[in-house]
Amino acid sequence: MSEKTQNFTEAVxxxxxxxxxxWLYCRxxxxxxxxxxxxxxxxxxxxxxxxxxxxxxxxx
Length: 60
Prior knowledge:
Blueprint: H1 3-28, H2 34-59
Helix pairs in contact: 1-2
């Protein structure tokens, strides 16, 4: 597997893992607190997207 493919795979797995964790955490918390966790999820997705872009630009 090339380094670019490996970096992309790691970024995708990281996104999926974080999304599952946030989803499970949100399900386990009261509804009035969900907005706070939505913001955390959004920040996590943004960070993962930035990491993915950094990997892509570094390998081009």
